[in-house]
Amino acid sequence: MLGVAEACVTADMAVDDADVSACLVSCGSNCSHARLVNATSMPQAIRLQNWLEYQLPIVSGRLERASNASRRSGVPSTVFFGDSIFAMAADKDAFLLCARRPEPCANAGVGFDTWRLAWARAWQVCAVDPGLLFVLLGTNDLLRRAAADVVASRAAKVLRYLRRCTTSAIVLVALPPHDARRHAFDERAVNRLYRTVAAAEGVGFCDVHEALVDDARLYLRQDGLHLSPAGYEKLNGELDECIKGE
Prior knowledge:
The protein is α/β, with parallel strands linked by helices. It has one domain (about 60-245): Rossmann fold (3-Layer(aba) Sandwich), CATH 3.40.50. The protein has 12 helices and 5 strands. The protein has helices spanning about 5-10, 20-25, 35, 40-75, 85, 115-130, 140-145, 150-165, 185-200, 210-215, 215-220, 230-245; strands spanning about 80, 105-110, 130-135, 170-175, 205. Strand 4, helix 9 (about 185-200) and strand 5 (about 205) form a beta-alpha-beta unit. The chain is globular and about 50 Å long.
């Protein structure tokens, strides 16, 4: 299994200036500061680091509780690993992703996460080794203007790592639709590549996009990016259907 510092500085998943804070948080003094830190990026990095420092212990606690419950019960856990689309479903509302799951479950969504930031904390999921692992990432990569093929390449590397370090049944979740009037990116192109990546890496693929796109106004919040309560209800149903079909 790759260590935390290795995950941060592996050559083919090099962390750029905008992602420096993830390594500073998860690697600490093991990070190569000369390689990762650029003085011009530090104000942004510090703000993001503060946000990550708030989120990461919360996620770590959820994962630990799910792992402990799984060991006590002998029932494999489920983990939702992703960005704010998963993270915002951890609010105390009726649409929690874990609320209806009888098995031990942890929402490991982190706001602003990209594939490269998630790479730096994937070891936490490996330590839990859940029975079922849903992965939903890529929206923030697109918001940072990464090309679809670049996003897919990053996804393949993280999924390959997760396949090596866990025995989980892994399901790559398609990017949900968004309001194109507010956000200019093409998630459909990424989802087409995700389907190919999932097949190549031996993981499942759940195309929630098609289920959400026809009534996107109902399923999206006012920001045009995150899911509404109705959207999470629909997402839950689609994920359940994908599991049954695997």
